[in-house]
Specification:
Length: about 110
């Protein structure tokens, strides 16, 4: 893959600060992240469910929690947070996933 030289974003940071990752988790709702690839349905309180984007299924076994910010599929066993979801669904590495989320939801990275 070619290096992006004409990009307006600064070169990739060597390591993201933990505070930066935590800030993204607090400011970005997992429901908004998941809803790009799956249709969320309320499952009571801050809990949602959807058809799993990682395997074929007819009834929703993919559960995610807006307050806790994580997901778990009881069908295929995949689980994680906003970062792993973007990594898995978009084929990105961790840093790329963080940068994509920050850009998508207009959260400045330190």
């Amino acid at each position: 893959s070619k290096a992006r030289t004409e990009s307006a974003t600064p070169p990739a940071m060597p390591r993201l600060k933990d505070s930066c990752k935590q800030d993204l988790k607090l400011r970005i709702n997992i429901v908004d992240v998941v809803s790009r690839v799956a249709t969320p349905r309320r499952a009571g309180g801050s809990k949602f469910k959807a058809l799993c984007p990682f395997h074929q299924e007819k009834s929703p076994s993919f559960h995610f929690d807006a307050d806790k910010g994580f997901y778990k599929c009881f069908g295929c066993g995949k689980s994680g947070d906003i970062f792993t979801f973007v990594q898995e669904t978009e084929g990105l590495n961790f840093t790329e996933a963080v940068e994509a989320l920050a850009q998508r939801f207009n959260v400045p990275l330190e």
